Amino acid sequence: MPNTSNDRTADQPGNAQSTGAPMSPGDEAPDGTPGTGHDVCPACGGSGKVGGATCSECNGTGEVNVGIGGA
Ligand SMILES: [Zn+2]
């Protein structure tokens, strides 16, 4: 029986992210930082893809965490 270690599904694109503060290159702050929130990634417009490839700014999530001063 060759199948022994495949019980985890990859729910994140790219490398596995440990718990804590996963950040994409386009993020201004770690997720959960007060005064910040998710916004549509300006690089891919929320599609998560640029030119057919995974957006490098949001890691394909289509969102980035940016400061939301509200001012
Ligand atoms: Zn993006």
TrEMBL record:
The protein's superkingdom reads: Bacteria
Residues of the region (Disordered) are 1-43
Q: Where is the composition biased (Polar residues)?
A: 1-21
What name has this protein been given in UniProt? Molecular chaperone DnaJ
